Amino acid sequence: MIIGRPRYLLFLITLTACRAFSGAQEVKRVPNHGQNARQMPMHTKTEMSQQDKHGVVRAYFIAADEIDWDYTPHGRNIMGMPFPETGDTEAGPPLSHRIYHKAVYREYTDASFRVLKIRPQQWEHLGILGPLIRAEVGDSVRTVFKNNTHLSVTMHPHGLEYKKDAEGALYNDGTAGTVKLDDTIAPGHTYTYIWTVPERSGPAAMDESSVLWMYHSHFVESTDINTGLVGPIIVTRRGSARADGSPKDVDREFIADFSIFDETDSWFFERNAGKQARALRSNALNPALREEHALYTINGYSEGNLPMMTMKKGEHVRWYLLSSTNEDDIHMAHWHGNTAVWNKMRMDSVFLGPMAMATADMMPDNEGIWLFHCHVADHFKGGMVGRYEVLP
Ligand SMILES: [Cu+2]
Question: Residue 222 pLDDT > 90, yes or no?
Answer without folding.
Answer: yes
